[in-house]
Amino acid sequence: MELDQHIERVLWTEDxxxxxxxxxxxxxxxxxxxxxxxxxxxxxxxxxxxxxxDIVRKITLPVLVDFIQVxxxxxxxxxxxxxxxxxxxxxxxxxxxxxxVEDIVDTGNTLSCLISHLESQGASSVSVCTFLDKPYxxxxxxxxxxEGKFYRGFECPDNFVVGYGMDYAELYRNLPxxxxxxxxxxx
Length: 187
Ligand code: PRP
Ligand code: MN
Ligand code: MG
Known about the structure:
Shape: globular
Catalytic activity: IMP + diphosphate = hypoxanthine + 5-phospho-alpha-D-ribose 1-diphosphate
GO molecular function: hypoxanthine phosphoribosyltransferase activity; magnesium ion binding; nucleotide binding
CATH topology: Rossmann fold
Domain Phosphoribosyltransferase: 16-168
Bound molecules: 1-O-pyrophosphono-5-O-phosphono-alpha-D-ribofuranose, manganese (II) ion, magnesium ion
Helix content: 10-25%
Subcellular location: Cytoplasm
Structural class: alpha/beta
EC number: 2.4.2.8
Radius of gyration: 16 Å
Largest sheet: 6 strands, mixed
Number of strands: 9
């Protein structure tokens, strides 16, 4: 069975993704070049694993990499609105500048939970880089304090997308592109 056959249409090809990753990484490298300590890049597991791996290799500054896991979706396609931290970071982020790397921001519940958690651990600033964004789907405003910046790869149409880390029932994360899943597969 070929995974490709489950995809109705491709939204961002491998090539388009790679080009946008380079642009984002150079913006980030420029914005944080005056830091006196490494930028702490925190990937939100599991969805962000590929985007994180790609973007850190294009950031030209020293970074520390860690993962955090916040679950908001079950096996379905909609948020249950109650995110929980199921795996915390190992790095001490007190006084450090943090960049949270996400695959997609939808309702904003996951990110808001994460931002308050990281701020409460004493980060000097919390910025966010999300590959995709669905700003029209927010249930909560994502607020970044002080020097916190928000980077996004692309605005995502209101489809259920999979690939490049994003799943449906844990599947499709390994697709190298982002596509719309055939609705008959989850309806
Ligand atoms: C997805 C996605 C984001 C979050 C966005 O993760 O990777 O982390 O949902 O949704 P929100 O803005 O509505 O909170 P999910 O909880 O499905 O876990 P996963 O990364 O392991 O797939
Ligand atoms: Mn996620
Ligand atoms: Mg998921």
